[in-house]
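Encode chain A's predicted structure.
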Amino acid sequence: MLVIRQLAEDAADLFLGTRCVGCGRPSRTLCSVCETQLAGPARRTVPDPVPAGLPAVFAVTAYDGVARTAILAHKERGCAPLAGPLGAAMRRALTAAVESTPSGDPVAAMPAGPEPPLVVPIPSRRESVRQRGYDPLHRIVRRALGPVWRPAARAGVLCPALGFVRTVADQAGLDIAARRHNLAGAFSVRPRFRERVANRTVVLVDDVMTTGSTLVEAARALREAGARVSSAAVIAATVRQRPS
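Encoded structure for chain A:
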């Protein structure tokens, strides 16, 4: 079904004379040349400074250029076809996150068991979802966990366990200290998911990591509910991030 939907979106792009969001040339929503900038391997990335409690984070690219343009176009302008290439990038980040522990050891070192890890997205603010009419991150993650996921990667199961317990401000424009203050104590595991996350391995997902504050707060809430937060996956990390 996802493959058919992607083919339909690509056909619509060509029929409507869409321009690439990356280079502006007549093409599909993201041309093959620009798409290569989202096609790199996922690597461990850390912010500077590294906040306490941050799980191991894997990203495919830096949050600039084509990646930044594509993520914003999908999130703010509703460019649905971009969920395809963004989902593929997220899939690579998720694969790396699932196959690694926080110390970078192979997946065999992770707690054994028949159950796959839970993939928990960072929640979106309700007002943002209401204004957009959809949740951009959930759409990307659903693509990432589609039938093209590699079976050997121990596919995770989407689990929207986190929710807000209070109102937070938009993070855009806030510095590191303000981001931490804005998010402190903001997330909690929703009651109906508490039993499900207890004693389960969890991989957090978000579209972008800036300072790491959001992932730290999400990891705190899940750990308090008994989850093992092994790692996190993002499409891109801000340009001031450095590979470890």
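The chain is about 35% helix and 20% strand.
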